Amino acid sequence: MALIAGDHPYLRLSLPENAPFALKPSPGKGWGCFATRYIRRGSIILHEQAWFIFGKSLHELSESDMQECYNHLNGEQKRQFSHLGRNARTLYASKLDALRDNLLPLIPGLDTFGTMNVMRCGLLPISSRFNHSCLPNACIASVQRGIQAVKSIQEGDEINLCYGNSFEVKTTEERARELPFVCICEACNPERNFHYLSDMRRRLLQGIYYLTRGCNINVMHDTQENAVIEDITLKTRSENSEHSSVFLGICYHIRALLLEAEGLATPGLIKTYFYAAMYVTMRKFVRTSRSGPRPSRIEILQARNWMIKALEVMRYVPAPDLEESLDFEALEQQLWSDD
Ligand SMILES: [Zn+2]
């Protein structure tokens, strides 16, 4: 029996006081989270403590893990959880199925040797109410920080997360293979012009991924049939990291333009700006047989522009691992030095 919106058990879920969103039916997606006021990019939308954390990845969980998790919930959590037994319009076959649908992957945790390599996932019933989009306006910053807006969100807009990995370099068909539902976002919807441009851009981004990383994002070993780069010389040079700094700089330059056109504010965009600037700077300071000519004044100004953009995006897109691994300060100093 279909439920009308006013009766839905989701309306009995406790949202944090002053949450900037409400749960509402979302056409074609069941229910979703909609902004109840303007949300500035970079703002934290929800900070939810996981009710239970598994030291395993989602696909490793057994029925007894689920049962253990359920047994661990306190009375109020079990009462709240009873409102989740109906995913939008359909009933789950069992409470354990409902539970599985409210788990999210967490950043890896520490093992007994103190090394960060244990896969984890957690029961986060409110965070799990955010629908997917391949053009998300929010992301899970971290368990500590919660869900953060990566774009400015207008009152009434749905707040979406991207559930997939490396979706910016995957076409609609490739993304659909990984999603357990049909995505109807602008990038996936064949009735929208954006979809065709988006597929073209993401296919080009996949080619650039091969040129700069030397591998195919979708398969371990690419064959003649699924080759992203058909030219054998170019393919081999990419696999052996034999491209010049000029070539790689142009790759990251194009990658930045494609990601901007796609409207994807992700840690990948910050990294792209950084590398686009870095390959110009390398030619200024590091002289090797493959470094190419010294950069022109225009190229230096362009690289400074990429760096300004990288620092700007870092203000609202969480990327703690990039902050640790890339030396932004050193690159900035090199770019603005006179020589
Ligand atoms: Zn989509």
Outline of the structure:
It contains 11 helices and 12 strands. The protein has helices at 63-72, 75-82, 95-100, 172-178, 193-213, 232-239, 245-262, 267-285, 297-314, 320-325, 328-336, and strands spanning 21-26, 30-35, 44-46, 53-54, 86-87, 90-91, 103-110, 116-123, 131-132, 138-142, 146-149, 158-161. It is elongated.
Task: Give an overview of the whole structure.
This is SET domain-containing protein. This protein is an alpha+beta fold and 339 residues long. It contains 11 helices and 12 strands. A hairpin with a 3-residue loop joins strand 1 and strand 2. Helix 7 (245-262) packs antiparallel against helix 8 (267-285). Zinc ion binds next to loops. Zinc ion binds at residues 133-134, 183, 185, 187-188.
SSE pattern: EEEEHHEEHEEEEEEHHHHHHHH
CATH architecture of the largest domain: Beta Complex
CATH superfamily of the largest domain: SET domain
Overall pLDDT score: 87
Largest sheet: 4 strands, mixed
Structural domain tally: 3
| Strand proportion | 15-25%
Low-confidence stretches: none
Going by helix content, strand content and strand pairing, the class is alpha+beta
> CATH top level of the largest domain?
Mainly Beta
- Could you estimate the helical fraction of the residues in percent? 25-40%
Number of helices: 11
Report, as a whole number of angstroms, the end-to-end distance.
73 Å
Spatial strand order of the main sheet: 1-2-12-9
Strand tally, please? 12
CATH fold annotation of the largest domain: Beta-clip-like
Mind telling me the C-alpha Rg? Answer: 23 Å
Q: Which cofactor or ligand species appear?
A: zinc ion
Shape: elongated
Organism: Viridothelium virens (Speckled blister lichen)
Domain SET: 19-164
Protein name: SET domain-containing protein
Pfam families: SET (PF00856)
